[in-house]
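Reading a protein record of the kind used here takes only a little practice. The integers have meaning only within a learned vocabulary of local backbone shapes. With that in mind, consider the following protein and its fold in token form:
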Amino acid sequence: MVASQAQVATTILVVDDSSTIRRSAEIFLTQAGYAVVLAEDGFEAISKIVDHQPALIFCDVIMPRLDGYQTCSLIRQSQQFHNTPVVMLSSKDGLFDRARSVLAGANAYLTKPFTKDSLLKTVSDQLQLVADIQKIS
């Protein structure tokens, strides 16, 4: 797959305490032409968001120290990053888990383990929504 210029300039942050999930996402996203930044937990993610200013954030729900719901809430409280799309990652697929993600401010929810196609479709959908909103503004 040939990456477009927009993809090359697009940075995506993947926050997950599982090295397997981080590595899988990194491989899929890099092959599609995106720049990828990785973080193991919410605290590391917050500093990397400031440093790298990602266009999209994937955030695991269950992590040590600062979980995904808390991390998403902190992102939403930031003046600079409150509009950055956040996609929650979880092995749970229940209605309660999805609702709690929405309450924390997540834009979407992706169940683990994800496929390359489902990950890239989620990226495409979220970045298109951002582009559509920017056209309206």
